[in-house]
Structures
1.
Amino acid sequence: MKKNVETFIGCDCEYEEAQIVIFGAPFDSTTSFRPGTRFASHAIRSESFGIETYSPYQDKDLTDIRVFDAGDLELCFGNTEKALNQIQNMVSEIYQDQKTPCMIGGEHLVTLGAVREAARRYPNLHIVHFDAHTDLREDYLGEPLSHATVIRRCHDILGDGKIYSFGIRSGERCEFEWAKEHTHLTRFDFCGLAEAVRAIGGAPVYFTLDLDILDPSEFPGTGTPEAGGVTFLQLLEAIRAVGTLNIVGMDINELSPIYDPSGRSTALACKTLRELLLAVTH
């Protein structure tokens, strides 16, 4: 696997040495409101050089861990299933080489491609899901593959009791009612996260972070902003808690940089990715 020309800051080790492999999934073909997440991975790499490799929050440095940046996949925009297959194939290659995938979306549907492969490799897979939206619709305008249905499609694979969602503050009534029977859903914030971490224990976990969990006053650069979100510091604390789990795959998604010309949303995404990489590396 070849190193990307422009890498995320501090993530430039050789593939053979890497613990974690970053790759971009610039796909937003099913976005229901404002498209533009396909530009996120490029923006995050470019703007990452505005931050430091060192985290004063965790007293760790990206230069202390081994991360390889493989660049972006060339995804098919005319065929959603084909794009998901391309993502799954990439994750499969990373797992085959005994490394941990870290995907930069793209819209949230890209998670499904990675989870399909993670679940194939890890039969007892759990998902920890940070988001403003339930993403539990059976379909969106008749289409079962959408960023509004991604967690429902993941449930189709994993079954009941293995999905833990936090920060949820938007969705149809039927989604919240369905979640009571089939998933663990926490509204508005991270209450109960410590209990969830204990319940999950040593089970393999895929962590998916939709950045619109953040309040749009801090993170306006997203396609579906929702008022009432968490703060950046609350998110960092929650990421550190998740980092104690057995993380076998992860993604960060739904940055849409074109909706924030100030650049602060991209800068926030860069810092969040740095903290995530450091939190899951023990």
2.
Amino acid sequence: MNDTLIDEATIDRRLAQRLKALRSERGWSLDSLAKLSTVSRATLSRLENGEVSPTASVLGKLCAAYGLPMSRLMRMVEDDFAPLVRPGEQTIWHDPSVGFERRSLSPPAQTLAGEVLECRLDAGARITYDAPPRPGLEHHLTLLEGALDVSVNGQSYQLRPGDCLRYQLLGPSAFATPDDSAARYLLFIV
């Protein structure tokens, strides 16, 4: 592997192709996927044609419909598995609509169960997910900097730097920062 990041345009193009392939593999129409994901048919079409970049919320809805974690979807659009992942090889994905950045420090692989993400959420930002990609998915979230409010399984937690929140994702979730503080955290998914 090389020491350069995969550019966002390449990731967006690969993501569009993979989303279209996932729907095709299941034999679903755009209308069927729209009903399952609650994402409009028009938005799905624009995503699959690479006309727009997906938001974290939309990807969360699509992953829930497909029954796979977002990180697994992102792994499907990245290069082949390598045991050593140097910083220049770690894929970064942005959702500028909410001020979210996701770096795949240790991407998932077919033979490895866990993965590690470094996430940044701008001050005053909020991301919500209606359903888990796979019920019972284990998360360990460690806040490195800033402040972060996390709601999972009907419980709300206010995290400070150094705190670790451990949970199995069974229902809706939300991540929010106060207006005066961004957040940087590690998310371990098993």
3.
Amino acid sequence: MIAHLNGRLIEKSPTELVIECGGIGYFVKISLHTFSQLPADEAIKIYTQFIVREDAQLLYGFADKVERDMFNLLISVSGIGPNTAILMLSSLTPSEVANAIGSEDVSTIQSVKGIGLKTAQRVIVDLKDKMLKFGLSDDSGTISNNTIRFDALTALVSLGFDKKAAEKALNRIFNDQATVELLIKDALKVL
């Protein structure tokens, strides 16, 4: 599996890009969300998911691991293929998808082209329990896109702390320069 590409951006469009790594140009399909987060310079690192089908081998690219994780969850649902998942992530940010699933907002998921009522309901039923991974807060219904904060929250919950208490502790001590380790240590002092 190809987990990420780190190289030079050769071509880009809102739906695809070509990255040169070691003299090889990789064609990568992307969402509009990823396109909006691409850096202005040529040096690029993009997280990928390699999909092998009977008739094709496709590489999908994401600006961060959170979007890639959401993509993998979406394609695990019956009736959602890679192209539909990319379309969902182009129409909605990963946090909006997670928020819609967590709050059982069928109309938001159904607003994506190609997703009907039954598929939207199936997405919610299959993925609702997995939204903790995306920092879904039961209090406010907000989602954190910050991978460091998410990793710290996941670690605290896996250590046995209450999710709401861990979120409150992280909200009090969080700063953009913190590492996962520092956030966990500081949160343990507060909890």
4.
Amino acid sequence: MTTAGTILVVDDDAAVREALHSLLRSVGFAVELYGSVPEFVARGGLPDTPCCMVLDIRLPGMSGLDFQNELTRQKVAPPIIFITGHGDIPMSVRAMKAGAIEFLTKPFRDQDLLDAIHAGLEVDRKRREESRDLADLQTRYAALSGREQEVMAQVVTGLMNKQIAVNLGIAEITVKVHRGQVMRKMNAQSVVDLARMADRLGIERDPQLTRASVR
């Protein structure tokens, strides 16, 4: 029986890998072991379950810090916990500024590592949940007709149906129908709710329309 989540261990020391494998398996985690960055890259991506990475700073070829930067650049970085036997303050500061969950110097307490892993998995669960929510929102938005998208863009600026009708050159009753369809298809409970959705979707609001709404 495994805990929900996969721990990716990247360390060139076989003894360390096996010790971590034994520890993490003992508390129910699924564990994958890699001896270098190329070994992990050959995996072909991250697991489909919440995960975090336990990453050594000093690795053959690309260092752990450089690998962190590359994962971040590709926007595929999992939560990372750095471990090292040769750490220093500038190194730890660089790692944490780049988004690392924790920076542990060997030898470290097992509980410190487990606490960091639990924190990393929680971060990844939330990220995945937000990603799924955004994908669902994008699907709903894509289901709107072109005219409904135009109406939505103006509704979230605070314009009334009459003003939108003038702007789009259509009848006010038609705007009302489109507006109702937008609210239903987007599953929005209010205009404020719809505006939050528009922000998450990155829909830009025309400032001229916003100014027009307060005249």
